[in-house]
Amino acid sequence: MGHTGVVRVIGRRESTCILPRSLLAQAGWRTGEIVTFAFGSAHRRMRVQGGEEDVWQLPASLLRALRLVPRRWFYHLDGERRLIRFGPLIGIMTTWQMTPYFRSVMRAAASRGMMAVVFRPTSLRPSVRELEGWGLVNGVVRRVRVPWPDVV
Fold first, then answer.
1. Which pLDDT tens digit goes with each residue over 95-132?
2. C-alpha to C-alpha distance for 87 and 11, rounded to whole angstroms
C-alpha cells in the first residue's frame, strides 16, 4: 500500500529511525526491530522505534546513504519483508539541455511524493550504481547524485 510521510533529519550519530507509532502497528513491527529502507537501487537496514504521528525522523547517515532529501515522500510499506521503499525514483535520460518541460515533470513528480531526475547517458556511474543529473531539491533544480532509478 502507498502513503505519504514527511521525512526529517535527526542527529548524525543516530542509529535508530523514529517512525509514527501507527505505522509500526500497521506493519506489525515492534520498537527495536531492523527494517530495510530503499530508494531506487539503494537500500540500508536500520533499527526502528515509535514516535509522533505523521513525522519520520531519519538519521542523516541513512539519508546520505540513500541520497534522499528531507521532504514529503510517497512510500510503500511491506510488513512481511520488513521493507519501506521511498519514491519511485524516475530517471529521464536525454541528450538535450534542461528544458521547461523537464522542470514541469520534476515539479509534478515532487507534488506526488516522487522524484524525477534528468540525466545524460554519460552520467551513469555503474561501479557505484549511481547517476548524476538534475533534480528538484527544495523547489530548486540542482545537480544531484542518486542511486539508479526504479524506472527510466
1. 988 899 999 999 999 999 999 999 999 999 999 999 99
2. 23
| Domains detected in the chain | 2-86 (2.40.40.20), 89-147 (no CATH)
Q: Is 84 exposed, middle or buried (0-12, 13-18, 19+ CB in 10 A)?
A: buried
Query: Helical H runs in 94-141?
Result: 100-111
Rounded (to 5) percent helix, strand, coil in the chain: 20, 50, 30
Tell me the H-state helices in 9-138: 21-27, 60-66, 100-111
Q: Is 102 helix (H, G, I), strand (E, B) or coil?
A: helix
Give which of 62, 86, 63, 32 is closest to 24, Cα–Cα: 32
**DSSP assignment letter at 113:** T
15-47 confidence digits (pLDDT tens): 899 999 999 999 999 999 999 999 999 999 999
* In contact, 136 and 110? CB cutoff 8 Å: yes
**Distance in angstroms (rounded) separating the CA atoms of residues 87 and 15:** 22
How many Å apart are CA 48 and CA 62, to the nearest integer? Answer: 12
CA pair distance 23, 13, nearest whole angstrom: 24
